[in-house]
């Protein structure tokens, strides 16, 4: 996994091309972040399909490092609400840890994202938000 590969991954994510994004993950990959655990392609598509029906989410990469076993980056996740996402709607999805956001509001979060890599595919991902 190199920067060009990751740029293709980020572009697919920003374009909501979930199948292409998930193709970067190895079978059995563990995607766990902020209390969300996505074990399958269907889980991935369901979670992001729901989230992105309410918000436009984009990743801007600021720092990037990679080896054969790890991709690490620091970047800004920008979330812009395209329609209201209230606490009840989040709770109905089991997403109690997420904050409501109203249409037109923007949240920007600095994140550190680490991906474990094997044979050029992600096997696990973890994220931390930096205040």
Automatic annotation (TrEMBL):
Pfam families: SnoaL_2 (PF12680). SUPFAM superfamilies: NTF2-like (SSF54427). Residues 7-124 form the SnoaL-like domain. InterPro entries: NTF2-like_dom_sf, SnoaL-like. This is SnoaL-like domain-containing protein.
